[in-house]
Amino acid sequence: MTVPATDWTETISADEPERHERFADSIVTLQTRISAKRGPGRAFHRKPVAALAGRLIVPEVLPEYARHGLFAEPGEYEVLVRMSNGAVIPQPDALPDIRGFALSVRGLDAPGALGQRTDRQDFLLINMPAFGFEDSQDFADIVGPAARGQVALLRFLIEKYGLVKGPLEMAQLVAAQARPFSGFATADFHSCAPVAWGPYAAHMHVKPRGAGRNLLAWRDWGADIQQRLAKGALRWDLQAQFYTDPERTPIEDGRKIWKAPKLTVGNLVLDSLADAEVVEADRFDPWSAVAEHRPLGEIMRARKAAYFPSYRNRT
């Protein structure tokens, strides 16, 4: 790999604080409405699949540009992972959904992305290589109608885009959720939004190692993980995909799949079940991060506004 570029920039509009406040309010309102019917829970990724514990191993040999933040020195860190289904209303595992892989590295003591010191670094990933939304406004417009069902969503899209483009947008959303998913032990997961890497920027990915497919895993994703774990540790490569230029690796556009090489920067080994109640009570926030890996881009900035109010709104 050639050395990645450092000329990335963030583009922050003057009205972002107001837009992000409205975004946070819309998420909390949706969460409150669903919690009134279903009981307290997260706004998204409400249904837990598995809670696992293990370690992240940072190798001794990494390129100089990759040696920043969590990856500056070789070593091992304790980790917790929450695997989840993404729907705002829990549904059977067999139905199409966005799957979540929340990785939290623990035991740190470093300057944090929000200014104070932090003892953790969270990476939130999904089984899609891109969000499918340019920014948080696009997402906020759709999430309310989507929570009311496909008919409501289609009506909204036709009102927004017209009789021709509306159904096309609907088809793209349905196709994205219905993309093949073989299970949490065998699928790739992606951050879909960048984080800083010292002077560089990168997307994060996890790629499974050595796990064979279980054709019946769709019946119960959590049972599949537990059965595999009973036979031995589960392993993934943690990969970074570095910014190269605004066209192939845009910082602000959540619709674009980044086109750049991936570098393995760590090995993730999960070898035991974690305390499910402790993991469910946890926050898992991309802004729970060291300063050298602070989240970047409009979608990440919107998350900063929305995640903490949503966390407080769970109970």
What does this structure look like?
- By secondary structure, this protein is an alpha+beta fold.
- The chain is 30% helix and 26% strand.
- The chain has helices at 16-38, 136-147, 150-177, 221-229, 276-281, 298-312, and strands spanning 47-58, 75-85, 99-111, 117-126, 189-190, 195-197, 200-208, 234-242, 262-273.
- Strands 1, 2, 3, 4, 5, 6, 7, 8 and 9 form a 9-stranded antiparallel sheet that branches.
- The protein is globular, with a radius of gyration of 19 Å.
Secondary structure: elements and pairs:
Layout: H1 16-38, E1 47-58, E2 75-85, E3 99-111, E4 117-126, H2 136-147, H3 150-177, E5 189-190, E6 195-197, E7 200-208, H4 221-229, E8 234-242, E9 262-273, H5 276-281, H6 298-312
Antiparallel strand pairs: 1-2, 1-9, 2-3, 3-4, 5-7, 6-7, 7-8, 8-9
